[in-house]
Amino acid sequence: MSSSEVSRRTTGSAARVDVADPRQLELDDLRGDPEEALVARGAAYAREWARIENHPTILLRNVAVVVVALREKYDDYLGRDGEYRKAVADMYVRAGIDEARIKTSVRYHVNNLLRRTLTTRELTRLGLIPESALERQQDTRATNQAIINATKLTAAVEASPVKQVAARPAKKSSAKGELKADVVEQRSPGLRVKATADQLRLAEVAGGIVGQLRPEVIDVDMTDGQRAKLDEHLAAMEKTIRELRKHLKTRRSGR
Asked: CA dist 179 to 172, 176, 186, Å?
């Protein structure tokens, strides 16, 4: 039995089913079929699925290669030339499909191919971001994950007690001879370890978020106002970091 056909026998007749161009089955279509016919049909569909599993992506990439080859012929990597557009439109007309159905998917692969084909200098001259769509997706996922990690860690640190107050506060006399409670902070060994780990993880996550900032996005996508706002945020972070590092330096020197 081939992968493109499956035969089933019902009431003495044989029905041939083309699984290469299947219609959507309903359960009623198969009721009454013997077990062997059902297994054979399922196996044929599964084989056909496995055979064509990666075909759509490969074909889209191949169309993208043709599109970029046409752009090279017209010396028009941005695809704006009228003759180039006419050639691509003719290509889809010959295929018998609406260009709108496929062009978004093809554009994705075209953008990736251009980043693999052209140099960074050529891409910049054309006004294109050097990173491919795939790389930008990966950057976006990394950025989102860094933000999620920071949010979770910040919430965990805020919910975690950092102080343990002594059960019997010490007493001391004021200038007027009144007794006042003196809050004594005590940290158990476990709490010290937790607080220390939290601080180190906060610093690591903060560095990870700042590391996601991309100069090319700042240069190409941001307005002057957005750049100014980003500079304000960075200046505030820089001030906080400078104060923390000064404190660390003081602690290390023993002062």
From this structure: 6, 9, 21
Helix (H) or strand (E) holding 179: strand 179-182
- Residue in the structure block whose two tokens are 């191919």: 113
pLDDT tens per residue across span 95-143? 998 988 898 889 989 988 998 899 888 988 888 877 765 666 666 666 6
DSSP secondary structure code for residue 8 in this structure: E
pTM of the predicted structure, to 2 decimals: 0.47
Tell me how far apart the alpha carbons of residues 61 and 9 are, in angstroms, rounded to a whole number.
41
The angle, 0 to 180 degrees and rounded to 10, between the axes of the packed helices 55-73 and 82-95 is 150
Residue 16, strand partner residues: 7
Report how far residue 126's alpha carbon sits from residue 84's, in angstroms, rounded to the nearest whole number.
Answer: 17
Q: How far apart are CA 108 and CA 106, in angstroms?
A: 5
| Alpha carbon distance 4, 41 (integer Å) | 10
pLDDT per residue as tens digits for the range 153-179: 676 666 665 554 444 455 555 555 555
Q: Return the DSSP state at 180.
A: E
Q: Are 171 and 201 in contact (CB under 8 A)?
A: no
- Cβ–Cβ under 8 Å, residues 153 and 202: yes
Phi, psi of 10 (to 5 degrees): -135, 130
Kindly give the residue spans of alpha helices, DSSP state H, lying in the chain.
Answer: 27-30, 35-52, 55-73, 82-95, 99-117, 120-125, 133-159, 189-210, 215-220, 224-253
**CA–CA gap between residue 147 and residue 209 (Å, rounded):** 7
Q: Calculate the alpha carbon distances from 102 to 55, 76, 82 in Å.
A: 15, 21, 20
d(CA 236, CA 245): 14
